[in-house]
Design brief:
The chain is mainly α and 475 residues long. The protein folds into three domains: 57 residues, no CATH class; 199 residues, no CATH class; 132 residues, no CATH class. 71% of the residues lie in helices and 1% in strands.
């Protein structure tokens, strides 16, 4: 195909929905595996994978943090909210605020909520350029925060005759209103939250008895125990924890029981809701990373999910028919389905790269795509990683079977490819060498560096063994 034709094909494929693109990739992968229309299928697959990579890059800005504002007043006003902010399209749970809501809320403050205090802060910041001390700014920030908290309270509890819905609609859509209420709660309880922050341990690698006792003491403030404030206090605690799911231990401690019903009956039952939500979001992130071929953080995500699911199942007595029990079951199912569907594709990808086609079926200039080799090696490593966490994530059988199948196939393919180098036609030698290099790369992941080095020497000897008679004949 000409360059123009390839561009047209790429444009057409790029217009397809992501589900259709994924389906086409699977179908063409199977076609190559069966040896049908190999050249066309390979070309289309390369375009589809390029589109998928480009799509992932384009989506990156959506999950990046909102650019920091050039408005220093807004930055100072929102500084205390930083521990509770989430970026991108992640669903917000109780105790969190969407960063995207900050701009419309600030505009409301400037326009209606606390315009006088906003102007006062701007004036205080402008005075800094004239040599005024920075210390005079903090009281102005706090004054604006108090005025904002009062304005949120008035907005949520208007005077008789005031159309509350219309007033709220002027601020923004429902999710912004939800975040506005949360911001009002945080601003009202700023002093209590600041005090909690100062009393918490700096970092809790393991949330054991001593840490639980220290946190319980720090939380012994009536204003932190209210239903509105408690989720934000728990969010602050979670930020200091190496394993966020362990926040459930605080709930179990407060209930003096691991029985789900008794824990749910306490205000600290919200900690279980938070832990389940965070695990669900992590499971979704894992699924998206796998779908986009991003395996850099997969091992870390798998460990966090494995430890979290196991921790919740062992430290809390869930009832399968309860809402929490159903949530945990759904999380395990989502993880299992995402992992299993990807694991099952790996042997096919390996076979496509290492399959020994007859020399007459190898077109001139045929090559093995190096990026595809690395993607496949990453997938093999992904399968190996899954073995560590297979039992708790309900993928034990498929993981063990697939890894064993990969080891057997690559070992046999490696031997056959080395033999093929000894008698390879010069026209296809480069392609065979590329296949051998791919097989060595897969051996490195499956069997270790020592075995891969041994296979590399065997391949080198096979190539030299073929060239020596040629040189002798030429002499």
């Amino acid at each position: 195909m000409s360059h123009t034709q390839i561009e047209r094909l790429r444009d057409y494929l790029a217009q397809l929905p992501p589900q259709s693109q994924a389906l086409l990739m699977r179908e063409f992968e199977r076609a190559i595996e069966r040896g049908q229309d190999v050249a066309v299928a390979t070309l289309v697959l390369e375009q589809l994978r390029g589109i998928a990579r480009d799509g992932a890059k384009r989506q990156q800005p959506e999950v990046q943090q909102e650019p920091r504002t050039a408005n220093p007043g807004r930055r100072l006003f929102y500084e205390m909210l930083e521990p509770f902010l989430i970026d991108g399209n992640s669903p917000a749970r109780i105790g969190q605020i969407r960063r995207a809501s900050l701009q419309p809320i600030w505009q409301w403050l400037e326009r209606t909520g606390a315009p006088e205090q906003v102007r006062e802060l701007d004036s205080a910041l402008a005075a800094l350029a004239e040599g005024e001390s920075v210390h005079h700014v903090d009281p102005v920030v706090r004054k604006l925060q108090r005025a904002a908290a009062d304005a949120v309270h008035v907005l949520n509890s208007p005077a008789p005759g005031v159309d509350r819905q219309r007033a709220l609609a002027r601020v923004g859509p429902p999710e912004v209103i939800e975040d506005l209420t949360s911001i009002g709660t945080i601003l009202e309880g700023r002093d209590a939250l600041d005090g909690l922050t100062s009393r918490l341990p700096a970092f809790m690698r393991t949330f054991g008895d001593s840490q639980i006792a220290a946190v319980s003491t720090a939380m012994n403030v009536p204003s932190l125990q209210t239903p509105k404030m408690l989720p934000f206090a728990l969010s602050l605690i979670i930020r200091r924890m190496a394993a966020p799911w362990q926040i459930i231990r605080l709930a179990v401690k407060m209930a003096a029981s691991d029985d789900e019903i008794r824990v749910a009956a306490t205000p600290y039952g919200v900690a279980i809701t938070i832990a389940l939500h965070d695990l669900s979001c992590l499971a979704t992130k894992l699924r998206m990373d796998i779908k986009r071929g991003h395996f850099e953080n997969v091992a870390e995500h798998l460990k966090s999910l494995h430890d979290g699911v196991r921790g919740l199942r062992t430290e809390l007595d869930f009832r399968s028919e309860s809402n929490w029990g159903k949530q945990l079951t759904a999380i395990r199912a989502e993880i299992s389905n995402a992992l299993q569907s990807e694991i099952e594709t790996v042997p096919g990808r390996v076979r496509r790269i290492l399959r020994q086609r007859a020399e007459k079926d190898i077109p001139p200039g045929a090559h093995v795509n190096s990026s595809e080799v690395e993607e496949t090696a990453a997938l093999i490593d992904f399968v190996a990683t899954c073995r560590t966490y297979a039992s708790e994530l309900a993928i034990n059988e498929v993981t063990l079977r697939t890894f064993s199948e990969l080891q057997q196939y690559v070992e046999k393919a490696m031997e056959a490819l080395v033999q093929s180098l000894r008698a390879a036609d010069p026209k296809v030698r480069v392609y065979r060498q590329m296949q051998v290099a791919a097989a060595i790369r897969f051996c490195e992941v499956l069997f270790g560096q020592e075995y891969a080095s041994l296979m590399s020497r065997a391949a080198e000897n096979a190539s030299q063994g073929e060239r020596k008679p040629s040189r002798a004949g030429g002499g």
